[in-house]
Each structure stands twice: as structure tokens, then as C-alpha cells.
Amino acid sequence: MLFDSDTKWSCRLINVLVAIFSGSMKQDLIQSPSLPKGQNAALKAESNFVSGGSVLKLEVQILRRLANKPYVAQLIQSGKREQYCYIVMTLLGESLRHITKRLGKIFSVSTQVRIGINVLFGLKQIHDIGFIHRDIKPANMALGRFGSREYKFIHILDFGLAREYIVVGSNGKPKMRRPRQRALFRGTTRYCSVSTHERSEQGRMDDLWCLLYMLAELRGPLPWANASDKKEVYEIKSKTEIDVVLENCPVQFIKFAEHLT
């Protein structure tokens, strides 16, 4: 059972302190008597009547498989009520997107590389449990909670667009999921791979392309940063040589890109 319908995380125990996100789901900073004194957590809630199926159900499945693994958000509790379902997870720190906006400057190569190694390790945790993230970007990266041992490490969060690429076959053994001839677009236009624009089935490689573009942007604007729509981004992205995209990055990043092609 993915959602616990009889959980101590009753709404009457939850005092919402600060709303930090609002969209198809709502995420809040919460404090509850069920948490250790002085510790906060993040709460995501979703209506049970949304079309297209539950995103939170998928997140719970993934977070349970990622239990106790480093560099990813951790599940604390999940629950379901008549009108909605919710998950409670570790409250992380400032997102990489907010950090880049706040600092308003180009990151050093040292910082860029350390972020890259950190996120790469987190991605490996996700890939090792049979999922691809499909939306690697600065907004989905966050520092650990301030004052914790994980404070200086980047954590991956938000698995709403994730997809399982390893499934169990009829013989009971795990196997690669058969790719679709044409897939729906999933991801963020600025960071997604060229093949994602072309509606190809995504795999682990596409997560790595997102990471590469995200890291390149830490050293300067991407060539398509000012493009106005998805089609224009695709045209620029597909025609721009990778050494131009990575011109402000260490030469080893070219090897990274060559490995992906």
C-alpha cells in the first residue's frame, strides 16, 4: 500500500507555517508534534480528483526505494484522505535556482565540478532503482537543511516526471522497458536533450544531457537562453556544436558529451 490511510500525520496535528510552493500540488513547510522538537518538514498535498493519475503516488514509490540513500530527498510519511493525499519529506535548504539568482554571478570551475559530481552521484541512486528523473534542472536541486551534516551537498528532488525504465518481465526477472516509438514531451525545454525535443523515449543518457546543460549554464548563458519558444530552442540546440555550449567549461566536459553521443 503506497499511501497509509491510518497515519499519525493527521491534518489536525499539522500547523502550516509558511507556503513555499503552489501549483497542481501544494507544498508547505510544516511543524508537527510527531517531529523531533524544532525540526520542520516539507508537505506535498494533491487532490484525489486530478486527471491523469496521481503524481504523489509515483513520488512515494520512488522515495521509498531511495530510503537512506544520500543526495536525494527522504520520505518521512505518506497518507490519504477522502479529498486528497499527501506526503511528508525532509525539508531541504535553498534550491540551486535560488542560489544562482541570489548570487547573480558565474560560478567558479571548482564549484561547478563539485556540483556536477554531487548531482551525478544522486542520479546514480535514482538510476540504480530503475527510474529516470526526466527533469534535472536547478529548481529541482537543493542544499541540505541548514545546520545539518548534509547542508553543503546538493540533493535531487521532485520526481513528478520520473519514469520507470526497468520493469519486471513475465519470467519474474527485471528487464529494460520497451521504448515507445514516439513519446510525449516531458522535461524542461532549456535543459532537455535534443532527442527529447524529437519525442524519442528518454533514458539515463537524457538525464545526463540535462545535467551537462545545467552545469554549462553555471559558467555562462546557454546559446538558446533568449529563445522564445520550444521550437526555436530545439533549432539552436540541435545546430550548436557542443564545444560552443561548453566553451567556459573544463575540457573534460567535452569528453563527457562525447561519451553521451
Automatic annotation (TrEMBL):
<feature type="domain" description="Protein kinase">
    <location>
        <begin position="14"/>
        <end position="261"/>
    </location>
</feature>
<dbReference type="InterPro" id="IPR050235">
    <property type="entry name" value="CK1_Ser-Thr_kinase"/>
</dbReference>
<dbReference type="GO" id="GO:0005524">
    <property type="term" value="F:ATP binding"/>
</dbReference>
<dbReference type="InterPro" id="IPR000719">
    <property type="entry name" value="Prot_kinase_dom"/>
</dbReference>
<protein>
    <recommendedName>
        <fullName>Protein kinase domain-containing protein</fullName>
    </recommendedName>
</protein>
<dbReference type="GO" id="GO:0004672">
    <property type="term" value="F:protein kinase activity"/>
</dbReference>
<dbReference type="Pfam" id="PF00069">
    <property type="entry name" value="Pkinase"/>
</dbReference>
<dbReference type="InterPro" id="IPR011009">
    <property type="entry name" value="Kinase-like_dom_sf"/>
</dbReference>
